[in-house]
Amino acid sequence: MLHRRNFLLLVSVLYLTGLISCVGPLFSLLQYSGLATGAVYRSHEIFQKLWTDIEADNSSSIQLSSVWIYKRKLKEQKPCSFGTTASTKDSSGANLYLIVDANGGLNQQRSSICNAVVIAALLNATLLIPRLEFHNAWRDSSEFGDIYDEDHFMSTLKDYIEVVKELPTELMERYDSNISNIQNLRVQAWAPPRYYLEEVYPVLFKQRVVRISPFANRLSMHLPSHLQFLRCFSNYEALKFSLAISELAKKLVKRMIERSSNYGGKYISVHLRFEEDMVAFSCCSYDGGQVEKSEMDVVREKGWGKKFKQKYRVIAPGLNRKNGKCPMTPVEVGMMLRGMGFAKDTPIYLASGKIYQADRYLAPLRKMFPLLQTKETLATKDELAPFEGYSSRLAAVDYLVCLFSEVFVTTQGGNFPHFLIGHRRYLFNGHAKTIKPDKIKLVTLLQNTSTSWIDFKDQMGSMLAESDRKGIMVPRAKKSTRKGSIYSNPLPECRCLWESKRTTNRSNSYLMVDH
Question: Which UniProt keywords are given for this protein, alphabetically ordered (predicted)?
Fold first, then answer.
């Protein structure tokens, strides 16, 4: 009887658990299927309603030279400590080799490369030029040397670690000349230095070579200052884009400056994440109906297999939009910028991959900003031909053109703005000079069909002021989170570490003429 009661109790608990797990997602779907404010995409409808007012708005326009008011206060700068530089390499590491597979897109791979330099120094190992992993979503087969200058990378780091292009012949023969046969270590995410010393080094010492794959996010954001220095040094000095990428980027920057003569050569850059794969990955719905849904299902299946069809996965487009997780459409970007006070003739560079249904979605943005430029409009077909089919190389060109814009607009987050915002802070004395929209507020405004252009402009003015204020702030984040990343918030740490190397003539000169 006791066993029977326990069995019935267990069945009841399992039943209730299953009921809750089913009802919870169902409740979310019902709640955000269109009833909640901000859950439905109506931006095109709002644009059509307000277009006459937008077009007729002749109020004073904001000048690119006076967008940013806030300055980094001196009291926020911590005094530099010149005794915390990285140690020089130990020649005994020549017999130990570290291999990493850098996975993800361009800037996630960049993070992995910088972290690999740190780990190689920590373990006193020689680093094999990092291998870039191929992914179905990005479908870019580029190797390290296609994106970065290998020789510059190796020579710049020579005082700290040794970097080689190939493993010794005798070591390769041990593994039948196949790197895949080398033992792969699965390292925990955000692992501290102690983990590598206690778990990875013993294997490395025994085998002479280890491979870590995947390597993204496999090192803690918070490190001792001498190791953080190597991150800074790798990111801002050792990683120089290849000649092909830097030369094309220089041409595009020059052409943008020429087209911005009315604004003193200053321009806005917008990182728009409205490519087909991003729309699919976000699980958001726009105004394409069943056709759009079917297309996105196909893209998700092709890029991520069964990931989005697993039992625990609940796709709730309305909830995603209300929470500000949906990629902004071109019309939303245009309305936001016009609402902030940027005039019709403002020069804008649009950094993006292939826009989903580009003709349809880009039309309103071009209507609001006729001087809109892209890689395709600035470069000739012959100039772009060597880059076609290589998303990471094209993203690298976009990165450099955005880096030197007066205003950068990020619309969706991710590693591209994560790194670029940090790089701009590094170049512009601590100010990111970046517009980060409050997308939760924005989707609410763009669902309200009674919104007037005057009210919308007031809200956008406040949003721009908030971006200006936050552009100089340094988040106080705990643990190994992206908010505490040295890549997005390099000051004061990177600047101090950089200053500490001036006695050895290692100054930062990340200028277009060199990079």
Answer: Carbohydrate metabolism, Fucose metabolism, Glycosyltransferase, Transferase
Distance CA(33)–CA(75), nearest Å, equals 49
> To 10 degrees, what angle do helices 106-123 and 415-427 make?
70
Report the first-to-last Cα separation within the chain, whole angstroms.
79
- The arithmetic mean of pLDDT across residues 73-78, rounded, is 51
- pLDDT for residue 102 is more than 80: yes
Angle at 233 (CA atoms; ends 232, 236), nearest 5 degrees: 75
Contact between residue 82 and residue 48 where contact means Cβ atoms under 8 Å apart: no
For residue 17, count other CB atoms closer than 10 A to its CB.
Answer: 10
Quick one: which H or E segment has residue 268? strand 268-271
The CA distance from 295 to 283, in Å, is 12
Label residue 344 exposed, middle or buried (CB < 10 Å: 0-12, 13-18, 19+): middle
Provide the strand spans (E) within 342-441. Answer: 348-351, 372-373, 407-410, 434-435
64 close to 268: Cβ distance less than 8 angstroms = yes
Report how far residue 192's alpha carbon sits from residue 414's, in angstroms, rounded to the nearest whole number: 23
How many angstroms separate the CA atoms of 447 and 322, rounded?
10
Q: Tell me how far apart the alpha carbons of residues 353 and 375 are, in angstroms, rounded to a whole number.
A: 10
> Is the preceding peptide bond at 79 cis, omega within 30 degrees of 0?
no
DSSP notation for 434-445: EE---HHHHHHH
Mention every residue, 6+ apart, whose C-beta is less than 8 A from residue 107: 395, 399, 414, 415, 416, 418, 419
The two tokens of residue 103 are: 């996975």
The Cα 397–Cα 403 span in angstroms is 10
Buried b (16+ CB within 10 A) or exposed e, 131-160: bbbeeebbebebebebbbbbebbbebbeeb
Distance CA 274, CA 280 (A): 10
pTM for the whole structure: 0.87
Tokens linked to 505: 């003539």
CA distance 390 to 397: 11
What 3-state DSSP class applies to 102? strand
- Tell me: cis bond preceding 347? Omega within 30 of 0 counts: no
Instruction: Give the pLDDT confidence of 255-312 residue by residue, as tens digits.
Output: 999 999 999 999 999 999 999 999 999 999 999 999 999 999 999 988 888 888 887 7
d(CA 288, CA 386): 34
